[in-house]
C-alpha cells in the first residue's frame, strides 16, 4: 500500500497497544515504524527488473522483522523508554512493523513474507495499492488522536476496526468476482486456464480479470453493479519470447509475475510486461530485454524500464461508467495494435 496508509496503520497500531501511554510521540514513532520496511526502495540490485522483483523482499519478511523488532525493543527500552514494560514495548514495535507487509499482501504486487524461503510472494489482490476507502477511516481517527489525547487509544482502535472491516469486505467482493469468472469460462476453452483478478484503482467495486490463453490473453471487467453477469472479454496479444531458452532474470520475472507476462515488439525492441499491474495500454512495469541487431537478429540487452504507456482521457469517465454497470469495455481496453475481437470472439462460444 502507499506510504500514507502504512504510516497511518503503524500509528494506529502503536496507539492501540500503548493504551494510556499513548502520546503524540508514540503515534509518530508508530508511523515511522510502519513505513520503515519500504526503505528497501533505496537499494539498487543492479537493474530495474531485479529492483522490481526484490522490492518487498527481505525487509518485508516475517523471519527478519521479528528478530529486528526484538533487537529494536532492547535498544529502545535501554536508552529511550526504560519505564515501559518490556512485553508491551515489544508488542508495539513488532505489531507496527509486521502489519506493514501483512497489509501489502492484500495488494496485487506481492509480498515476500517468507523470504529467504523459495516460496511465491503472497499477493491476495483484494485491494488496490491506493484505496481511500481503506485509508481515510484509518487516517482520520489517528489525526484525531493527536487532539483528543485522553481518547487516543480508543480512536486508534476504532480506526483499525473500520479499516480491517474494509479489508474483510474486499475478500468478500473478490470471492464474488471469482465465482462469476468461473461461471463465465465454464464450458469454454478458457476453463482451467490461469486467471488473475484485481480491483481497479481506488475501489473494490470494479474488478479487472485476465485469463491466459497461449499466445494471447483475455481481459475483462466485472462490476458488482452489473445486472448482466456475462463478462465482456477483449482478446489481447500476449506474444512469446523469441529465444529457445530464458535467461535467469526472465525466469525470475516470470515466477514473480506468476506467468502473467506479455512479450511485444516495439520497433527494434522487445518489451516484457507484467500484466498484473495496470490495464489496457497502461502498465507501470514494462522492460526492454532484447533488441534487434543490424542483421535483424534478436540479442539480449541490459534491462531498461520504459514509461507505463498512455492513459487516454476517454478512459477516466469510461472507467467510472463501467464501475456503475455499463457493460462495454471498448473505450477502456481497445486499441488498434492489441485488439482483434472480430477474429477471435467465436473462440469463446
Question: Would you give an account of this structure?
Answer:
- The chain is an alpha+beta fold.
- The chain has two domains: about 5-170, no CATH class; about 185-349, no CATH class.
- The chain has helices at about 5-20, 25-35, 50-55, 60-80, 85-105, 130-145, 150-185, 250-255, 315-325, 330-335, 340-345; strands spanning about 195-200, 205-215, 215-225, 235, 260-265, 270-275, 285-290, 300-305.
- It has a four-stranded antiparallel β-sheet with strand order 1-2-3-4, covered by helices on one side. It has a four-stranded antiparallel β-sheet with strand order 5-6-7-8, with no helix packed on it.
- The protein is globular and about 70 Å long.
- The two termini are about 40 Å apart.
- Residues about 335-349 have low confidence and may be disordered.
- InterPro entries: Transcription_regulator (IPR053170), YdjM-like (IPR007404).
- One of its GO terms (molecular function) is hydrolase activity.
- This is Hydrolase.
- Pfam families: YdjM.
In a nutshell, what does this entry contain?
GO terms for molecular function: hydrolase activity. This protein has 349 residues and is an alpha+beta fold.
Notable features of this structure?
349 residues, 2 domains, globular, four-stranded antiparallel beta sheet
Amino acid at each position: 500500500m502507499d506510504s500514507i496508509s502504512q504510516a497511518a496503520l503503524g500509528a494506529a497500531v502503536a496507539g492501540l497497544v500503548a493504551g494510556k501511554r499513548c502520546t503524540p510521540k508514540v503515534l509518530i514513532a508508530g508511523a515511522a515504524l510502519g513505513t520503515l520496511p519500504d526503505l528497501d526502495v533505496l537499494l539498487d540490485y543492479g537493474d530495474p527488473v531485479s529492483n522490481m522483483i526484490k522490492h518487498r523482499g527481505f525487509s518485508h519478511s516475517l523471519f527478519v522483522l521479528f528478530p529486528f523488532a526484538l533487537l529494536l525493543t532492547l535498544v529502545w527500552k535501554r536508552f529511550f523508554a526504560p519505564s515501559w514494560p518490556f512485553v508491551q514495548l515489544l508488542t508495539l514495535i513488532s505489531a507496527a512493523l509486521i502489519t506493514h507487509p501483512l497489509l501489502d499482501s492484500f495488494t496485487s504486487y506481492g509480498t515476500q513474507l517468507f523470504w529467504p524461503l523459495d516460496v511465491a510472494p503472497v499477493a491476495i489482490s483484494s485491494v488496490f495499492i491506493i484505496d481511500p476507502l481503506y485509508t481515510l477511516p484509518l487516517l482520520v481517527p489517528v489525526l484525531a488522536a493527536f487532539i483528543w489525547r485522553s481518547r487516543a487509544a480508543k480512536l486508534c482502535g476504532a480506526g483499525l476496526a473500520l479499516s480491517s472491516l474494509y479489508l474483510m469486505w474486499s475478500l468478500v467482493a473478490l470471492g464474488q468476482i471469482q465465482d462469476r469468472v468461473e461461471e463465465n469460462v465454464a464450458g469454454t476453452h478458457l476453463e482451467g486456464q490461469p486467471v488473475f483478478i484485481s480491483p481497479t484503482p481506488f475501489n473494490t467495486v470494479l474488478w479487472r480479470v485476465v485469463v491466459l490463453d497461449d499466445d494471447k490473453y483475455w481481459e475483462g471487467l466485472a462490476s458488482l453493479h452489473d445486472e448482466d453477469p456475462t463478462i465482456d472479454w477483449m482478446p489481447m496479444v500476449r506474444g512469446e519470447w523469441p529465444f529457445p531458452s530464458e535467461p535467469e532474470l526472465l525466469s525470475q520475472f516470470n515466477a514473480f509475475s506468476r506467468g502473467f507476462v506479455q512479450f511485444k515488439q516495439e520497433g527494434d525492441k522487445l518489451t516484457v510486461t507484467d500484466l498484473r499491474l495496470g490495464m489496457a495500454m497502461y502498465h507501470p512495469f514494462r522492460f526492454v530485454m532484447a533488441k534487434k541487431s543490424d542483421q535483424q537478429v534478436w540479442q539480449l540487452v541490459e534491462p531498461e524500464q520504459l514509461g507505463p504507456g498512455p492513459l487516454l482521457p476517454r478512459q477516466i469517465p469510461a472507467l467510472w461508467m463501467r464501475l456503475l454497470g455499463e457493460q462495454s469495455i471498448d473505450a477502456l481496453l481497445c486499441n488498434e495494435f492489441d485488439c482483434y475481437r472480430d477474429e477471435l470472439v467465436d473462440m469463446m462460444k
